[in-house]
Design brief:
The complex is a heterodimer.
Chain A (H helix, E strand, L loop, with lengths): L17 E3 L2 H4 L16 E4 L3 H13 L4 E4 L16 E4 L6 E5 L4 E5 L4 H8 L4 E3 L11 H6 L17 E7 L5 E3 L20 H5 L8 E11 L3 E9 L2 H13 L6 E8 H11 L11 E9 L1 H17 L3 E2 L1 H15 L14 E8 L4 H14 L4 E8 L4 E8 L2 H21 L3 E2 L7 H5 L2 H14 L21
Parallel strand pairs in A: 2-4, 3-4
Antiparallel strand pairs in A: 1-2, 5-6, 6-10, 7-10, 8-9, 8-10, 11-13, 11-14, 12-13, 12-16, 15-17, 15-18, 16-17
Helix pairs in contact in A: 6-8, 6-10, 7-9, 10-11
Chain B lengths: L3 E2 L4 H11 L7 H4 L1 E2 L4 E2 L3 H5 L8 H12 L4 E2 H9 L6 H5 L6 H14 L5 H13 L27 E4 L1 H6 L1 H13 L5 E3 L6 H6 L2 H15 L5 E4 L1 H7 L7 E3 H11 L2 E5 L8 E5 L2 H4 L9 H11 L3 E2 L18 H4 L1 H11 L6 E3 L2 H10 L7 E3 H8 E5 L8
Parallel strand pairs in B: 5-6, 5-7, 7-8, 10-11, 10-12, 12-13
Antiparallel strand pairs in B: 1-4, 2-3, 9-14
The chains are: A alpha+beta, B alpha/beta.
Chain lengths: 474, 396
């Protein structure tokens, strides 16, 4: 094993950067949690700070070697899979809190800090951050920002990007960029939208195709006084979608810290697993779990309004789902509902999409169609509520030893069906690459930007479909 | 010795194929941080030796799967990684879906052992066990040195007292204290000077010889006689191979207190400290049929009844970091093992370990500063008396 010491000097050599180049260590960098096939890097680097990231990037650019960036590796879009080989930059050692400014309401962290670590640090100050992915013990802030993370806090925002006040990014040409107000020397992070166009947004959800995020400034939010879960049932997804649209329209998401919807098969499976004698006819066609956070009074008021709204839209409270699944999931088993719990059944493919509330029925129809088309796989769907609209997750269980290729085909077909149903790619990475390429004008601009900031195409080739488009189509 | 490990045995595949193809790559077993559960760096090897992921539980899973899928791995590199593991089991207790990365790592050791690919320090320790009944290379006869002045005549109705290698050779004061406890309880135990129980060989992956020694050791006691063992790995090795009761020293005392046959009273001449570090035993963390699952909780409750605070508030934590004594770590990476010991004893507060192996290692590692580390039996004999049992077994 080639492992060198940690201290860094000039950003032009890897002499003092920890690197691993033995095959046995590179195995763990081949893939993330996705169904996307793995790749193999030539070397993995674990920089300890932004200077070392600069050194790694400079070294890779000199050698014309592709660069992939990895946080906790918990994403499911294949963004960290090194399909073009090269260098994997593992940011896990960059886990420091750089600045906490309660007056400005910000915390600045190195990109590799785990959410659980960050929350533990902030808790004594009565603070938290806006969105926390469900894999908090392993997921990194940088990875979450780079991949449009969702999780606790989603209903109060559109996505992880809403929680970001600024970034520090290493570019392919060796520039160390700070965005937002921090672009002005000495000003620091306190304002995202200033100076001009929002460069912060260019790197959010970018899966490291434009630069390597080395530090993130997040807005702070006060910890809620109390938290409670409630569940609702609706006859079908379309009805639930109407309800959710109304909830969002009335800004009732302000005290909702997590809300997730589950289609009929999932609801049935969970309820009947907990209580086999439960009357199937009493199980609704769509279940929604809501976790409130706030004062007791505000929660009770909002809860009452949601109950009224649910009844107006053909639904009602479904306390059994709360008891058997949602409450247990959110509080009894683990505050960190790990999506890895899905994997307790088998390896699963996860495909995330975005959709307006009025397409929830169509989204579930796609899942039902896949059940008929590919009955060998077990299909499920969940939807995460955000401030407006939804993010839907298609989950398909498969035996990776024997069914991986077939699952890839099925997931690709599902992606196409979702687009046809009015849903769009979310968390692109590699899993949606072909469909991002099909967004002509958008993709054209992505290519223009890519050519400007990474003319050699070394940063995360293949992510977002960049640098894999046939030459004739360019 | 082979250059590459290019296949896995049918038995390995049968046992672990589901785990290998179930792993979601969530990295909880690599470097997750979960403060509510006391998990701060899941893998102590990665925290103190190397952050190369090949050393982690996930690394073991990826390695096994690579070999299974036709990618031979350098045997020496694989061996270096799977033997540089404390076998603490944190990767298994951290796994959200119940996979067995630590067990897979141990099974890979067996595959390597079968191929004669043990790393030299492990191979040497194995030879010591086979030749001298201990992994340290000490003379076989020195196992009984701690008992040289044990003059009491053994009573055949008393239990057998078996002292594992670590207590016998590395922490004789603990071995002696365990014997003293039995004597104070009115027993005249027979001191077993038999061969090693084979637990080290099992951890090295030499399952066949480990099994052979275990049975020989167990048979030497007779099937029914009660055996009290100083050392949890030894107790866990022997218990499934006997029908008679096989308890650790800790387990024996807790049982006697619970049944009311013994009572514990303070030694008025030596007040126990008001607060201690109570160190979990890795051997107890991963439940086996022979592991007394409640010993750690019961010890904490016992000390609390005497108003001795346990400073680690989550004790017993299923995720507590290993002190460095476990698995192949002391042999493979002695410097890292010392760093782990230092991390587990951060100050001069008295640290009490339930497994003599831990206390021995912590004391050996405290080169520059005094280590106030005691084995459980040492702590009890220093600060308490044993009295005949009564209805009030725990004084207020």
């Amino acid at each position: 094993m080639t492992e060198r010491s940690r201290n860094t000097t000039a950003p032009d050599t890897l002499e003092h950067v920890t690197v691993f180049d033995e095959a046995i260590d590179l195995l763990s960098y081949r893939r993330d949690c996705s169904v996307v096939k793995p790749g193999t890097a030539e070397v993995a680097a674990q920089p300890a700070n932004a200077d070392e990231v600069l050194a790694v990037v400079n070294d890779a650019v000199r050698a014309a070697r592709p660069i992939y960036v990895r946080g906790g590796g918990t994403m499911y879009a294949g963004g960290a899979n090194p399909h073009a080989g090269g260098t994997v930059i593992d940011l896990g050692r960059m886990n420091r809190i750089l600045e906490l400014d309660l007056a400005r309401g910000i915390v600045v962290v190195e990109a590799g800090i785990r959410f659980a670590d960050l929350l533990d640090y902030l808790a004594p100050y009565g603070q938290t951050v806006g969105i926390v992915p469900s894999t908090g013990p392993a997921a990194t802030v940088g990875g979450a920002v780079s991949s449009h993370a969702l999780g606790t806090g989603s209903p109060r925002h559109q996505s992880m990007g809403d929680c970001v006040a600024g970034l520090e990014v290493v570019l392919a040409d060796g520039t160390l960029l700070r965005t937002g107000s921090a672009a002005c020397r000495g000003a620091g992070f306190f304002q995202r939208y200033c100076l001009g166009p929002d460069l912060t947004g260019m790197f959010i959800g970018g899966d490291a195709v434009f630069g390597v995020v080395t530090a993130v400034c997040l807005w702070l939010y006060p910890l809620p006084e109390t938290r409670k879960t409630f569940s609702f049932g609706f006859p079908d997804a379309a009805t639930a979608g109407g309800f959710l649209g109304a909830v969002q329209g009335q800004e009732l998401t302000r005290n909702i810290w997590y809300a997730a919807g589950y289609e009929g098969a999932t609801v049935r499976a969970r309820v009947l697993a907990a209580e086999p004698d439960f009357a199937p006819a009493a199980i609704p066609g769509f279940g929604l779990g809501v976790e409130f956070g706030g004062t007791e009074t505000a929660i009770n008021e909002d809860h009452a309004r949601l109950v009224t709204l649910a009844r107006e839209h053909g639904g009602n409270e479904f306390p059994e789902f709360n008891e058997y699944y949602f409450h247990k999931l959110r509080h009894d088993e683990s505050y960190w509902y790990s999506f890895a719990g899905y994997f307790s059944r088998s390896r699963c493919a996860i495909l995330m999409t975005s959709l307006p509330c009025d397409r929830l029925g169509a989204f579930v129809d796609v899942i039902d169609a896949q059940r008929n088309r590919h009955p060998d796989f077990l299909w499920a769907a969940a939807s995460v509520v955000c401030r407006r609209g939804l993010h839907g997750g298609v989950i398909a269980f498969y035996d990776e030893q024997t069914e991986w290729d077939a699952m890839l085909t099925a997931i690709d077909a599902t992606a196409t069906s979702l687009i046809d149903a009015g849903c769009i790619p979310y968390k692109s990475g590699k899993i949606w690459a072909r469909h991002v390429q099909a967004c002509d004008a958008y993709f054209h601009v992505l290519e223009l930007v890519k050519h400007g900031v990474d003319p050699a195409g070394l940063l995360s080739p293949g992510n977002l479909g960049l640098d894999q488009r046939p030459a004739a189509a360019r | 010795m082979t250059d590459k490990l290019s296949r896995l045995s049918d038995g390995f595949v049968l046992r672990f194929a589901t785990d290998l193809y179930h792993c979601s790559s969530c990295n909880y077993c690599v470097d997750s941080i979960w403060p509510e559960r006391g998990l701060n760096d899941a893998c102590v090897t990665m925290a103190h030796h190397s952050r190369a992921p090949g050393y982690s539980g996930r690394g073991f899973i990826e390695a096994a799967r690579a070999v299974l899928e036709g990618m031979p791995l350098d045997a020496a590199q694989l061996a270096e990684r799977v033997y540089t593991c404390t076998s603490c089991g944190n990767c298994e207790s951290a796994c959200p879906i119940g996979l067995r990365p630590a067990t897979i790592g141990e099974a890979l050791r067996a595959e390597l052992a079968d191929a004669n690919d043990m790393p030299p320090p492990i191979a040497a320790a194995r030879e010591h066990v086979l030749d001298r009944a201990n992994p340290y290379g000490a003379e076989k006869s020195s196992r009984a040195t701690w008992a040289a002045d044990a003059s009491a005549t053994a009573d055949p109705s008393s239990p057998i007292y078996f002292v594992g290698c670590a207590a016998a050779l590395k922490l004789p004061t603990e071995a002696r204290a365990g014997y003293e406890l039995l004597r104070r309880a009115g027993l005249s135990p027979e001191i077993a000077t038999t061969e090693c129980c084979g637990a080290p060989l099992a951890s090295y992956g030499d399952e066949a010889h480990g099994e052979k020694l275990a049975h020989a050791c167990a048979d030497s006691f007779g099937a029914e006689r009660k055996v009290i063992v100083a050392g949890y790995p030894c107790q866990q090795q022997l218990a499934p191979r006997r029908t008679g009761s096989t308890l650790s020293v800790v387990g024996w005392l807790l049982e006697a207190l619970r049944e009311g046959t013994l009572a514990l009273e303070r030694n008025e001449a030596a007040n126990p400290p008001a607060a201690i570090h109570l160190l979990e035993a890795c051997a107890l963390k991963r439940r086996t049929p022979a592991a007394p699952a409640t010993d750690e909780t019961a010890v904490r409750e016992l000390f609390a009844s005497f108003r001795i605070d346990c400073l680690n508030p989550l004790f017993p934590s299923p995720h507590a970091p290993c002190c460095g004594a476990g698995g192949g770590m002391p042999l493979m990476q002695p410097d890292a093992a010392r760093r782990m010991a230092t991390a587990r004893t951060p100050d001069d507060t008295v640290a009490v370990t339930l497994d003599p192996r831990c206390a021995a290692h912590l004391r050996e590692s405290a080169a520059e500063r005094p280590a106030n580390v005691l084995g459980f039996a040492e702590f009890i004999t220093r600060y308490f008396h044993l009295a005949p049992g009564s209805t009030e077994t725990r004084p207020q």
